[in-house]
Amino acid sequence: PPPAPGYYDTSCFKRGDLLEVPRTLFIHFGIYLGENRVAHLMPDILPAFTGDRRQIQQVVTNKRLILGVITKTASIRVDTVEDFAYGGSILVNHMDRLFEDQVLGSEEAARRAEKLVGATAHSLPFSFTFIFFFFFFFFSSPQFCETVKMIIRDQRSVLASALVGLASIVCLGLAPSTTLPTIFIPFFLWMAG
């Protein structure tokens, strides 16, 4: 039978392999520790507030992730291969084979990764740069564009824009800066839908 969705064949991974998961803006890296476990650096705000390992080890929610990115707070954690990949395809990075003299062997890389589990990193200046790139690429992503198209095609957006326009006329008065958008925005949404 075909593998279940979210199933990853870990038989091709060796302890100490550098795994990568391509994302939209970056590549997420982790070190395979064996037994379906991957050590990786994950943005997470929770380690800044608590040392409770049970709470921290739970799967990072989007809110925790975004707040961790904003404050540039991250921790090295161990997750299953499935949680590490988060639905993406996993590649084994073999760049180390290009060099004759390896700095670290696979086992040493895995041991060092295990020693760093739980370590927390924090750097505020970087977070502002990341926020800029996050919003720039998020709003230019295909998902965002599809959402905008869906909103434009939905006839309820015509009604909502007309009501917002009428409310602006009531609050700000009858003027070209309120009346023209009240007429043209619903009209263009209606035509596009």
TrEMBL record:
PROSITE patterns: LRAT. It comes from the Eukaryota. Keywords: Acyltransferase, Membrane, Transferase, Transmembrane, Transmembrane helix. The chain crosses the membrane at residues 116-139, 159-192. The keyword Secreted does not apply. The keyword Membrane applies. GO terms for molecular function: phosphatidylcholine-retinol O-acyltransferase activity. Gene3D superfamilies: endopeptidase domain like (from Nostoc punctiforme) (3.90.1720.10). This is Lecithin retinol acyltransferase. It comes from Nipponia nippon.
